[in-house]
Amino acid sequence: MSDAPATLKFGDKDIGMPVLSGSVGPDVIDIRKLYAQTGAFTYDPGFTSTASCQSAITYIDGEEGILLHRGYPIDQLAEQSSFPEVSYLLLHGELPSKAELDKFTYTISRHTMVHEQLAMFFRGFRRDAHPMAIMCGVVGALSAFYHDSADITDPQQRLIASHRLIAKMPTLAAMAHKYSVGQPFMHPDNRLSYTGNFLRMTFGVPAEPYVVNPIIERAMDRIFILHADHEQNASTSTVRLAGSSGANPFACIAAGIACLWGPAHGGANEAALNMLREIGKPEHIPEYIARAKDKDDPFRLMGFGHRVYKNYDPRAKVMQQTAEEVLRELNISDPVLDTAQELEQIALNDPYFIEKKLYPNVDFYSGVILNAIGFPTEMFTALFALARTVGWVAQWNEMISDPEQKIGRPRQLYTGATQRDYVPVAQR
Ligand code: ACO
Q: What distance in Å separates the CA atoms of residue 32 and residue 18, rounded to the nearest whole number?
């Protein structure tokens, strides 16, 4: 706690409030007693100035464009680590030893299959169902299959639920894809890596052997790392809020998936590629830039801007390099990448975007890579959900084990009718 408490002058009272300091980042004014002391609430729609919890998992400095997981910079993790290792790091707080990593990887591989009855859920969906609609449903349905890990006060049961979620998300995401293209579901092959297994379940068919392309495997693994966690974003806060009532973890993750789907959040990767395709040629860019700047036009440059980053999103830098590498190595020439690069340059030099500190975010280039790998656009957000599951379960575990945790229950500024008497329908 800092020595200098904050003072709020409210009416004729001076209210002293403690100021708490984290290990790095802005101090926070502790307003927990504010209502008791003043009878007033604070008002902060969108939580732009509100820290809703303590967390030791991920740190972002949006002004400097820094993202650290358990202290490690995202670019180092993306370059040198693997998704299972980053998953272990997020869950346990430290990088694993070789033996710990091997054990973790083995444990995850032992949970990759889903109950055969779960496959029947898929048949209830229309063929053209959006994969995120399917993911909301089937991940929520997992809660009905695992009563044995339902005691969330037991850390061991929480860990098993976390392992199950991390392990089954690739299987479910691949099944959502297979269902939409009318191909048989592929069972996991645990000899493959986490990412290789996912690629095989998505693109393999039972009629032929599937050989994992190491370039695609590495790029995909990197995309998973880049999406693994992002502190208290909308979907993570949703998972925490749902979990704060003691709800089943699989149901909480389904809530996170629902939130992630929106175009202002995870759905932006799909929206960004659709936008780049719609722009089509670099010559059309000025028209779209003008629309993005027009107050009367709801159009926004998808994949641009971020609530926290007021600088280049560090994930977008790695994503851009990966997009170039993947396209070069696969010998693909995609005009969408040219449009994206040109659009980025024009926007970054435009006073509107400079003044509002709007930079490309993680979603701007990810669609170009996923498209090159062969994913249909509708799958993009499901891939984000797959990767973010590890962040969600790490944050959920942290919340449940936090002694200061309470059920999440925001207040409101009420602007509706004041008390009035009921009028029977015949008299209205
Ligand atoms: N294109 C054009 N203008 C924009 C954009 C954009 N992409 N993003 C923000 N602005 C403008 C707004 O119009 C607003 O202008 P004003 O101050 O004149 O009213 C100003 O910048 C601030 O925007 P807000 O919406 O208030 O900022 P907020 O922090 O609430 O929103 C958000 C952040 C939702 C990400 C926004 O930048 C956006 O809609 N971007 C496009 C969608 C997107 O890429 N989302 C992915 C985010 S990353 C992720 O979830 C993984």
A: 10
Residue from 223, 219, 159, 226 nearest 400 by CA? 159
Residues 6 or more apart from 229 whose CB is under 8 A from it?
57, 58, 69, 90, 236, 388, 390, 391, 394, 395
Check if 361 has its Cβ closer than 6 Å to any atom of ligand 1.
Answer: yes
- Would you report the helix, strand and coil content of the chain in percent, each value rounded to 5? 55, 5, 40
Cα of 270 to ligand 1 centre, how many Å? Answer: 16
Determine which residue's CA is closest to atom 30 belonging to ligand 1. 307
- In this structure, the strands spanning 66-69 and 72-73 are antiparallel
Helices marked H in 112-232: 116-123, 131-142, 155-181, 194-203, 214-226
Cβ distance 90 to 391 under 8 Å? yes
Cα distance between residue 360 and residue 343, in whole Å? 10
Cα–Cα dist 65/176, whole Å? 34
pTM: 0.92
Task: Tell me how far the alpha carbon of residue 282 lies from the centroid of ligand 1, in angstroms.
Answer: 23
Distance 304 CA to ligand 1 centre (A): 7
Tell whether ligand 1 has an atom less than 6 A from the beta carbon of residue 300: yes
Q: Which of 130, 163, 306, 313 is catalytic?
A: 306
In tens, the pLDDT along 265-304 reads 888 888 899 999 999 988 999 999 999 999 999 999 999 9
Confidence of residue 4 (pLDDT cuts 50, 70, 90): low
Read off the pLDDT of each residue in 232-260 and give the average, rounded to a whole number.
97
The H-or-E segment that residue 106 falls in is helix 98-109
**Which of 357, 358, 363 should be mutated for ligand 1, with most atoms under 8 A from CB?**
358
Cβ of 384 less than 6 Å from ligand 1: no
- pLDDT tens across 43-94, in order? 999 999 999 999 999 999 999 999 999 999 999 999 999 999 999 999 999 9
- Determine the Cα–Cα distance for residues 295 and 175; give it in Å rounded to an integer: 42
Residue 293 CA to ligand 1 center (angstroms) comes to 11
CA distance 162 to 167: 9
Residue 306 falls in the annotated catalytic set: yes
